[in-house]
């Protein structure tokens, strides 16, 4: 008897150790990835470890009198832990298949049921050594019946869920077999409890359960591996999709619009057909964003893309060019078809948008041109449609067709050039600063410099209100030089006034970064304002890199030799990120906000961001995440090893006066 009890104790102790180790592995995995189902399975294996520990203690303390306080206490712990093991295993299966958290009320009810069942099973006959059969039925037969039914139900649920990875089928088979084992034991115990062969069967079931529990541990690990592989495949497919489509609306992006338009032009030319290229801008869209919020605005853009794509006219090309601007291309043979399409587009936009209990009414401006009458390449068609659209918006006309000699845009640009050059000369362009938080030290690390136009008549203008004109006028080089000098002046002023320096990050355009005088201008500014190079960080976008990667690499190396840090802004939005990341000697990458928006709720985005961070760290580069707007995003980024963040949750872009308040923080 003593030998048998020792063997049982050894088996249970070994299982306790195994499941404790597995629980620790799941804890590490959960802290790294934040998967909800892993948390429930972590609790399940922890409860199983406690259950095996209580069994080991029961075997070790077998000399205790049945019904004693120690015996009853261990029995209660064993019942609670085995029910919790089953409860959290089932919750984990549900969460893993639904990819959704469990309602807290369900969790609370489940915990109360577990405690109630455990007390019913142990306490009524717990201190009465004579009621052996009743005690066995409540503690063993009832539990086996509940577990058996539960596993069979779980198997049916898994069968109907159609899990994508193979581990789901393994778990389904496991649930069927374990359910049969428990139900068979429950019914057999009722009929043959007093038979000798049943006592021997109970002995053998200890070893069967050892195999069952060990198999469960392996199945959980296999499931996680299969789930992560499935998520990674989904993320790769999504990345490929985003290379060709706008992430927000699902429509073709600008590059793919031009590529597909070129293809349709070739087909039309071969067939002798004609194309009409429409450009649409939503009116008062900024008002919608300001009134209803950015989320409603994003949903409206998505709905607009859906309406255009599913149009009855069966367009050849539909895409989102930028902001609230869309392209729509059809075949046509008569002018009447053009007018019909024009009215159809206005009707599509004018139909009320039902968004989150809001009914939003919008209109659009349309400019269009023809192929091959107006142009024979995609870029010119886009340019001429844009000229027509600009006139439609300027004159508040619903639709304008491109006509040769259209000069309104040129006159506008001439007027804007004078205003912008005057704004630079009069220092009307002011700097705002968006703080960047170091997640390791939980303190201010640096700030990004952003430009606002303090217009003498229109007030403070955001970049979106004048950057397009600066780009069209090719004045970004002048703007970059102005911002660089103002930034250096600010760093010098702060040091003299507050005895503090804060690293400032400045966006540099491709034209200026590739300017032959760029390095010399930087050196002159650093010397003029006595600024240590470490306090100046230059940010370049992926578009800068792909223009001439060899020249960019040479410039970056020269800057780094001076002590200036260089980072990649909006990382992940281009199509060649991974190809050049290992080649560029940059110091830091800034993950674009489009990947951060749903990182706390979208497994694909989480996988992409985590991969970016691991890859960057592997290449010796720091990582900053842009667009952090919630506490959940911040905590998740901290858990997966992101170095720094910026976004509205930390602070929106603020004036110099407001930013200097950070100097008093330690």
Give an overview of the whole structure.
It contains 24 helices and 17 strands. With 666 residues, it is an alpha/beta fold. α9 crosses α10 (294-309). The protein is 61% helix and 14% strand. A hairpin with a 4-residue loop joins β8 and β9. The strands form 3 sheets. Strands 8-9-11-12-13-14-15-16 form an 8-stranded mixed barrel, surrounded by 4 helices. A 5-stranded mixed beta sheet has the order 2-3-1-6-7, with helices on both faces. The mean pLDDT is 83.
Residue stretches low in confidence (pLDDT < 50, at least 5 long) are: none
Strand content: 5-15%
How confident is the prediction overall: mean pLDDT?
A: 83
Question: Based on helices, strands and strand pairing, what is the structural class?
Answer: alpha/beta
As a percent range, the share of helical residues equals 55-70%
Gyration radius, in Å: 34 Å
Q: How far apart are the termini?
A: 68 Å
**Total number of helices:** 24
Shape verdict: elongated
The main β sheet shows up as: 8 strands, mixed, barrel
**Strand order within the widest sheet?**
8-9-11-12-13-14-15-16
Counting DSSP E segments of at least 2 residues, the number of strands comes to 17
């Amino acid at each position: 008897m003593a030998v048998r009890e020792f063997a049982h104790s050894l088996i249970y102790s070994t299982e306790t150790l195994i499941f404790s180790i597995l629980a620790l592995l799941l804890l590490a995995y959960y802290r790294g990835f934040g998967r909800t189902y892993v948390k429930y399975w972590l609790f399940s294996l922890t409860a199983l470890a406690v259950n095996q520990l209580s069994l080991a203690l029961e075997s070790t303390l077998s000399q205790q009198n049945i019904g004693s306080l120690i015996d009853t206490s261990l029995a209660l712990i064993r019942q609670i832990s085995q029910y919790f093991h089953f409860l959290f295993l089932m919750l984990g299966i549900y969460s893993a298949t639904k990819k959704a958290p469990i309602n807290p009320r369900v969790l609370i009810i489940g915990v109360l049921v577990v405690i109630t069942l455990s007390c019913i099973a142990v306490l009524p006959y717990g201190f009465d050594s004579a009621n052996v059969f009743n005690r066995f039925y409540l503690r063993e037969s009832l539990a086996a019946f509940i577990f058996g039914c539960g596993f069979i139900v779980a198997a049916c649920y898994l069968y109907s869920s159609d899990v994508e990875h193979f581990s789901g089928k393994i778990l389904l088979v496991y649930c069927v077999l374990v359910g049969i084992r428990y139900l068979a034991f429950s019914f057999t115990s009722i009929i043959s409890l007093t038979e000798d062969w049943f006592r021997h069967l109970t002995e053998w079931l200890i070893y069967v359960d050892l195999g069952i529990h060990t198999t469960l541990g392996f199945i959980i690990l296999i499931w996680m591996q299969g789930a992560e592989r499935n998520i990674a495949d989904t993320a790769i497919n999504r990345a490929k999709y985003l290379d060709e489509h706008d992430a927000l609306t699902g429509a073709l992006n600008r590059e793919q619009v031009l590529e597909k338009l070129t293809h349709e032009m070739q087909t039309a030319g071969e067939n002798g057909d004609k194309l009409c290229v429409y450009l649409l801008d939503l009116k008062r869209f900024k008002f919608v964003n300001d009134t209803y919020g950015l989320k409603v605005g994003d949903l409206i853009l998505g709905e607009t893309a859906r309406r255009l794509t599913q149009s009855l006219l069966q367009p050849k090309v539909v895409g989102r060019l930028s902001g609230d601007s869309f392209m729509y291309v059809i075949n046509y043979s008569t002018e009447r078809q053009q007018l019909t399409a024009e009215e159809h587009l206005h009707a599509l936009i004018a139909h009320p948008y039902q968004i989150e209990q809001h009914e939003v009414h919008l209109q659009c401006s349309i400019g269009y041109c023809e192929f091959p009458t107006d142009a024979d390449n995609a870029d010119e068609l886009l340019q001429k449609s844009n000229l027509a659209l600009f006139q439609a918006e300027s004159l508040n006309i619903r639709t304008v067709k491109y006509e040769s000699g259209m000069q309104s845009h040129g006159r506008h640009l001439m007027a804007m050039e004078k205003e912008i050059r005057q704004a630079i000369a009069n220092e009307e362009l002011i700097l705002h600063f968006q703080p960047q938080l170091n997640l390791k030290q939980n303190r201010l690390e640096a700030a990004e410099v952003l430009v606002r136009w303090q217009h003498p008549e229109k007030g403070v203008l955001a970049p979106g209100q004048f950057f397009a004109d600066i780009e069209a006028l090719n004045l970004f080089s002048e703007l970059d030089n102005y911002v660089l000098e103002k930034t250096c002046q600010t760093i010098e002023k702060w040091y003299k006034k507050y005895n503090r320096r804060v690293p400032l990050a400045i966006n540099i355009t491709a034209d200026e970064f590739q300017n032959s005088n760029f390095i010399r201008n930087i050196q002159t500014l650093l010397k003029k304002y006595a600024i240590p190079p470490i306090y100046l960080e230059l940010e370049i976008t992926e578009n800068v890199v792909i223009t001439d990667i060899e020249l960019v690499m040479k410039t970056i190396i020269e800057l780094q030799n001076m002590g200036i840090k260089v980072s990649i802004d909006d990382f992940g939005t281009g199509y060649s990120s991974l190809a050049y990341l290992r080649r560029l000697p940059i110091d830091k990458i800034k993950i674009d906000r489009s990947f951060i928006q749903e990182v706390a709720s979208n497994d694909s985005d989480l996988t992409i961001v985590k991969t970016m961070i691991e890859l960057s760290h592997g290449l010796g580069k720091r990582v900053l995440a842009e667009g952090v707007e919630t506490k959940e995003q911040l905590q998740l980024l901290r858990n997966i090893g992101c170095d720094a963040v910026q976004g509205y949750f930390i602070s929106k872009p603020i004036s110099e006066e407001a930013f200097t308040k950070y100097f008093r923080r330690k």
